Amino acid sequence: MKVASGVLLRAATGDDLQGVITVGQQTWPVTYGPIAGDDYVAMGLAKWWTADATVPGIRAGRVTVAEYDGEIIGMTSVGPLDGHLALWKLYVLPEFQGSGVGGMLLRAAIARAKADGYDELVLSYLDGNDGARGFYEHYGFTETGREHTGGGVPDSVWLHLKLEENHG
Length: 168
Ligand SMILES: CC(C)(COP(=O)(O)OP(=O)(O)OC[C@H]1O[C@@H](n2cnc3c(N)ncnc32)[C@H](O)[C@@H]1OP(=O)(O)O)[C@@H](O)C(=O)NCCC(=O)NCCS
Fold this sequence. Notes:
The chain is built from 5 helices and 7 strands; from the N terminus they run βαααβββαβαββ. It is of the alpha+beta class and about 170 residues long. Coenzyme A binds near residues 92, 131 and 138.
């Protein structure tokens, strides 16, 4: 389904809280269940996709939503990390993946990082999430390191995009 032309990107407001959380609840099981297991999914949803975990980012203007036909179908959240801008979350509802929405959200995060004067956009994905890796490589991200978590959880793979060399 090609929806990009009808998609609105905007800063999330308090009214979007449930829509944002729903994006996490619908994407996490299918994305991470197969590579990290159900316990990891349950942990992540309880830690990062609650109102308490989400409201501060919305209030700080760090959450962007993609809205289509009145529904939140994707989101990003960003924040500073070691002098760079970190893309903490980028998720598109499963039925809308592959229709250009993630690219819109990523390009908006890149534009924001540039506008705010950052030299790099950084992020991590979970080893085994090959769809995410391919997506980020498509936009020129390269690997900077890996973090071993243990406990059966795949490594976190850190990527960065140097903004002065990229005009996307
Ligand atoms: C990863 C994700 C955000 C990508 O969003 P999407 O809406 O599916 O991607 P898009 O349709 O916008 O793709 C944008 C471009 O990236 C390319 N692309 C997407 N996935 C790719 C892949 N695995 N390998 C190579 N290119 C890829 C597309 O071909 C498209 O290229 P084009 O603009 O030149 O035509 C989305 O699939 C998603 O939410 N996945 C599950 C959650 C997840 O893994 N999030 C990242 C956590 S770190």
